[in-house]
Design a protein that fits this description.
Elements lengths: L13 H7 L18 H14 L3 E16 L2 E17 L6 H11 L3 E9 H9 L3 H9 L1 E5 L17 H28 L3 H24 L8 H8 L15 H19 L7 H39 L8
Parallel strand pairs: 2-3
Antiparallel strand pairs: 1-2, 1-4
Helix pairs in contact: 2-3, 6-7, 6-10, 7-8, 7-9, 7-10
Length: 322
């Protein structure tokens, strides 16, 4: 489908809207043959399509790590790990993202998948509103699955970056202000030896940092509270970021697991106990994470400001970016 002139329209075309309304729930799985995908990913896409009957599935990130060990005194070892980032578009507006994520994680053992799920109306409105995330995924992502075998790809009006830096600055200020306030509260709780409350506040720091980074780097408004999922989504633009809080070290994993469950455990479990030493260790790690997130966001906003300035010179009459 041909790309539309961005100076005359910022909405889905009539043909595209009609395509979105032709979903037939009994259509079989139909991968896009023109864009070959890894066999392991093809299997999980087939399972997702058969289980949830989506309209489309896009891949907007594919990161792979490989390692090999050989030697005279060891057996050869090869390791290959994939992390995929998917966007699933469904017919209705129901939020089934957690169900889909749990299903994908339990059926994909060769690596990891982070999947976002949104209804077709949300997608159409996002395109009309010049949303950077959805427009970028549709135009530049890989379409892995379509409910209609005749649809090989989509293109919508290009993202227009005007005023995007100003909007990102507002999102940054809100998230960093909240994160800083939660960190100060965590420190006060530590002083009063209320370690379980300090842990809850530290969870809020990491959550707000991730939400801010995702909004600024991806243009995506996340409502995820699960720290693992938030960190993995952040890796779509900063692959090493989770290493600041989570690594293969068992002690660090234990501490992060403690942090991850504190969101609900500190409020609802009477037996949730955190020792002072664990809370203090996490406080310093989370404080460093906040500093890193702050610098990462400011760097991205600066790049966005340069892109906006360039776009404004080219076409000063286009609508505002999101």
């Amino acid at each position: 489908m041909k790309k539309q002139n961005t100076s005359t329209t910022n909405a889905l075309s009539r043909d595209q809207r009609e395509i979105c309304s032709t979903y037939q729930p009994l259509l079989p799985y139909c991968p896009i043959q023109e864009q070959p995908i890894d066999e392991e990913l093809q299997v999980i896409v087939k399972l997702l399509a058969e289980k949830f009957r989506p309209l489309y599935i896009y891949c907007f990130g594919d990161y792979a790590e490989s390692s090999r060990k050989v030697g005279c005194f060891i057996d050869g070892v090869a390791h290959h790990h994939h992390r995929y980032y998917l966007l699933m578009v469904i017919e209705g507006a129901g939020r089934i993202e957690h169900i889909v994520q749990d299903y994908a994680s339990s059926h994909f053992q060769q690596g990891a998948i982070t999947i976002l799920v949104h209804g077709k109306d949300t997608l159409a409105e996002a395109v009309r509103s010049n949303n950077r995330f959805f427009i970028t995924v549709i135009n530049k992502g890989k379409l892995l699955y379509s409910h209609d075998p005749m649809i090989k790809s989509f293109q919508v009006p290009d993202y227009i970056p005007t005023r995007a830096a100003d909007k990102a600055q507002k999102h940054y200020h809100r998230s960093i202000t909240l994160a800083t306030g939660f960190l100060e509260s965590a420190q006060e709780c530590l002083r009063n030896e209320k370690s379980h409350l300090s842990m809850f506040m530290l969870h809020q720091v990491v959550e707000q940092c991730c939400i801010g980074m995702i909004r600024i780097h991806l243009g995506y408004k996340s409502d995820i509270h699960h720290l693992y999922r938030l960190l993995y989504l952040c890796e779509s633009f900063s692959p090493a970021i989770s290493g600041l809080l989570l690594s293969n070290d068992q002690e660090q994993k234990r501490l992060f697991d403690l942090l991850a469950i504190s969101y609900s455990a500190a409020r609802y479990q009477d037996n949730f106990v955190v020792c002072q030493a664990d809370a203090e260790k996490l406080y310093h790690r989370v404080a460093a994470f906040l500093k890193f997130a702050d610098e990462l966001c400011l760097d991205q906003i600066e790049r966005m400001a340069l892109a906006s300035a360039t776009e404004n010179k080219i076409n000063p009459l286009i609508f505002d970016g999101k």
